[in-house]
Every structure is written in C-alpha cells, then in structure tokens.
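QA checklist item 7 of 12: single-chain prediction sanity check.
[x] sequence parsed
[x] length recorded as 261
[x] structure emitted
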Amino acid sequence: MKQVTTDELKKLYTPFPDSHKGQNGRLLVIGGSHLFHAASLWSLTVASRIVDLVHYCSVPENNAIVQKAKKEFRNGIVILREQVEEYIGEDDVILIGPGMTRDKETESLTNGLLKKYPKKQWVIDAGALQMLDLSVIPKNAILTPHHGEFTHVFGNEEVASVAKKYQCIVLLKGEKDIACDGVQCRSIAGGNAGMTKGGTGDVLAGLIAALACKNDPFLSTIAGSFINKKAGDALYEKVGPYFNATDLAGEIPKTMKGLLI
C-alpha cells in the first residue's frame, strides 16, 4: 500500500493574498454533550486556525464555554441546536460527532441530518459515527473511526470494502492510519505514544473537516492524517510523550507552515 508523501500536500489550497473573508472555507461543527465538554472544542480550536468561519453548535453548557472563550476564535459564531439547519445549507462542510454521547438523541440528530442533507460534505466522527445508520451514509462522507469504533460499526469488514460499499471515505486511525475511498487505499506512518491522549482524534477530525472546505475530500483526509502525525512527532522531539490535545492543536499551524509555505 502506497504511503502518503509530503509532495502530495502541495496540492492543498492555500489562501490567496487578495482573498476576502468567507472565501477560504466555512465549517459547521456539531458536537459536544452534557458529559464531554472538551472534545468538540479541540475540533473547533484547530479548524478556526484554518478556515475563515466556523459555526459551532453544541449543548447549552458547551455553547456558554465557547462564548466566554470567543476572543480566541476568529469569526466563530455559536448557534443553538434548533438553528443548526439554517447553517447546514450555507457552510462548505459539516463535522458531526466530537464529544457526542452514544444515545438516542445523538442517533436521531445524526441520522436525521444525514438523511435530509445527503449532498453536503460530511465528516462523521466519534459519537455520531458510533450511532450511525449505515443506510444513510452520504456519498463521499469522511468517516474517522479508530479500530474499536470501526469494529463496532462495521464488524469484521475490510476498510477498502466498506469504502467501496458505501461510496465513502474511511480513515482507520491507529499506529499507521489507513485511508480508503473505494478506489484506492493509502497508508500514513508516524505518530508516537503521546498521541494516545484523549482529544487527539478530535483535533484530527477538526483538521480534516477544515481542509475539506476547500479541497478534495480524499486529499483532505490523507493530508489531515499526515499533518496530524507530523505535528505529534514535532512535539515528541520537544517534550517526549508529555503533550496533550491542546498542545497538538497549537502545533498543527506550525507544521502546516513548514509543509505548505
């Protein structure tokens, strides 16, 4: 299986000097729960450094946290769950799942939106992924399971067969990430013990979703995985395995500059 290389990242979109606000991507993040507050915030943190505009939709407690921290997020807008469909139409990509719990509410919200808006570009992660109705997976949706989640959702199927069967993109996260789109599969090496920390997957989901706002979804997936691992390796060189998801989110822009500019 062919490994992803730095040269492939040169295909990624970079903002033009004369671009205007809104031209460099608009992302909607739907996530968080009464139990998990930080997960969707890590996705928001990294995405807000890449795209022009992030709409953030969570439960009231998480919305309040983001409102207080809003100065950190350029052009971030906090919206209520009952407003979410107003923004699905206007945003380039919707990330759903970080910090969402495995319950009937997540199941209903996730599958209802996927069924109603199948032509949007979706990134499906964490809680939303675990409650996913396979019959409503949108074409070209990006699914980001770790091995446990993949087995829970797809059983013993192979990654390549899942991608082909559902016409989606699957990024199986692990020591070596595997990305398949039904036509091809790629591997992404790298990473270290520091990246087992909670939240690093939420950072990756936010990164992939942000990239997908202006890039081909499969390129966004393999590039996001590659950049995420490179950022983790850069942190390992500085502090060993003693870093967390917040550190990783902060390192990614530096890694992107080194790879893309």
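[x] summary fact logged: The chain is about 40% helix and 15% strand.
[ ] second reviewer sign-off
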